[in-house]
Amino acid sequence: MCMKSPPYDFWTCMHRTLDVGPVAGIIFAIILVVDCLIFMFHEWWLPEDEFDKVRMHWSPERVQKVADEHKSAENF
């Protein structure tokens, strides 16, 4: 259900975080800002288009088959 909802922009997240409470809201907002800064630094330092990505080539059926083979090999 949460994956179907649209993502919030930064300022909406900030307002919702500050609405948590007078003390906890400020603490959580600081954590949110630091987290965003770390993410922005990471995106600058290692851009997404510069590293290789794993291509998924296994189907769930293949994974189940290998898992079953592994279980049967352990039983011997």
Automatic annotation (TrEMBL):
The protein's UniProt keywords, in alphabetical order, are:
Membrane, Transmembrane, Transmembrane helix
Q: Does the keyword Transmembrane helix apply?
A: yes
Listed transmembrane segments: 20-46
Entry protein name: Uncharacterized protein
